[in-house]
Amino acid sequence: KTVAVILVGGPTKGTRFRPLSLNLAKPLFPLAGQPMVHHPILACKKIPNLAHIYLVGFYEEREFALYTSALSNELKIPVRYLREEKPHGSAGGLYHFQEKLLEEDPTDILVLNCDVCCSFPLFKMLAAHRHYKGMGTILVKKVSPEVASEFGELVADPESGELLHYAEKPETFVSDFINCGVYIFTPEIFLAIQDVTLARKDRATLRRLSSFEALQSATKLVQTDFVRLDQDILSPLAGKKKLYTFETKDFWEQIKVPGMSIRCSSLYLAQYRSTLSELLAKGDGQRGPTIVGNVFVHPSAKTHPTAKIGPNVSISANARIGPGVRLISCIILDDVEVKENAIIMNSIVGWKSSIGRWARVQGGGDHKMKLGITILGEDVTVEDEVVIINSVVLSHKVLIQSVQEEIIL
Ligand code: GDD
Fold it and tell me: Ligand 1 centre from 169 Cα, in Å?
């Protein structure tokens, strides 16, 4: 049997995702029309003998309650949210729920970061993991050397696939192979995490024995159960014939800033072509709007037949797209209204916002830059003919004048 764990983190981790994380937990933000966390979940669902999917994080229970119950019914696999009362780190979170995760006596545990966008080649990875017979297999990817330091860099044996060296976000270049944040472990991983926790407790106790450091150690003691998968587990276990790597040549991106959701939406929409083509909008001549490239339109959204939509557009529930509107590379969230002849490009338009006639909401398209795209928070009104370029607008604002490269708080 296999169980899957998706590490969803918590509200403090999502701050770079503002303003979009202000009224929705980041893992539930829609990419290609489905919550971010839905994509790894669908990949896990394809694994035979999958007993359970757990989301582990420190968001409030209620943020995930509706989603997990609806999903359990839909997928016919129990999906459960396990809440940590405080952050324990990526490995500490797993360890905290050890009993629950081992309840079904799994042979393999899939562990996936929720903020990565990839094809999740879990099936092939599981076959490799069983072949290696190690304690864990890490999904890795070759990236350009300039960006490698944003991630965990690693060196693997090209023949055996063994992880030989691991450095988390190193200051000096180690390798252009990086950790993709997707792992398969055997239950032995819990012993490795336990070793780290116990070693820390021992050190804390020793320190406490020297009285003048007592205060310091008392505060440190609290930290003994905070364990990171990368620094605290992968690094020390490299070169010990315990961890192996599996390389993916498919797409892979990390989603830390809002702009990346436009890029990742486009990757998932492109993937739908071969996996879920029924989710892609089809331009059906006279009755519907003109569709260009990959587009998702929620069934409850209304799009005028004279609108032109795409490529890379996702339109959420109950949005209304008016006559002559042009949408390119954007995410339109629930209940948005876009009025006649407005243009939206490289932008995210927040829930319940309204874009006026002949208005223009536009970004330059550099998804990793803070002002590389335009983001409108919830309930923003852009009046008729107003032009918004490369700006971030927080919720509940009315824009009566054009702005460029501004953050409107
Ligand atoms: N449950 C829980 N509890 N989840 C957590 C916690 C925690 O205390 N802390 C982080 N996470 C989740 C995050 O939500 C994310 O999905 C994942 O664990 C990793 O987050 P970080 O520990 O903040 O690391 P990172 O995203 O900066 O980098 C990691 O992932 C990269 C791939 O995306 C590292 O492992 C890098 O080496 C790797 O390249």
Answer: 12
pLDDT digits (tens, 9 = 90+) for 52-110: 999 999 999 999 999 999 999 999 999 999 999 999 999 999 999 999 999 999 999 99
Distance CA 308, CA 255 (A): 28
Q: Which of 253, 244, 226 is nearest to 183 (CA)?
A: 244
Q: Which of 6, 13, 176, 179 to mutate to test the pocket of ligand 1 (most atoms within 8 A of CB)?
A: 13
Q: What is the pLDDT of residues 110-127, one digit of tens each?
A: 999 999 999 999 999 999
Residue 163 has a CB neighbour count (10 Å cut-off) of: 28
- Angle 38-45/61-75 helices, nearest 10 degrees? 30
**Which residues is 164 bridged to in the sheet?**
none
Q: Which residues contact 397 (CB under 8 A, 6 or more apart)?
A: 377, 380, 381, 408
Number of neighbouring beta carbons within 10 Å of residue 123: 11
- DSSP for 89-129, please give it: HHHHHHHHTHHHHHTT--SEEEEEETTEEE---HHHHHHHH
**What residue has token string 């609806």?**
70
Q: By the 8 A CB rule, do 53 and 336 touch? A: no
d(CA 118, CA 124): 14
Residue 243 CA to ligand 1 center (angstroms) comes to 18
List pLDDT tens digits, range 152-169: 999 999 999 999 999 999
pLDDT at 210 over 70: no
Q: What is the pLDDT of residue 353?
A: 98
- The residue assigned the tokens 């090209």 is 158
Q: What is the ipTM of this complex?
A: 0.99
What element of type H or E holds 273?
Answer: helix 259-275
Substitution site in 39, 98, 113 for ligand 1 pocket (most atoms within 8 Å of beta carbon): 113
Residue 174 DSSP class: -
* Token reading at 347: 């932008």
> Cβ of 320: how many Cβ atoms within 10 Å?
17
Dig out the tokens for 256 from the structure: 């830390």
SS3 (DSSP) at 372: coil
- H or E element at residue 205: helix 189-209
Q: Is 89 exposed, middle or buried (0-12, 13-18, 19+ CB in 10 A)?
A: buried
Q: Does position 218 have pLDDT exceeding 60, yes or no?
A: no
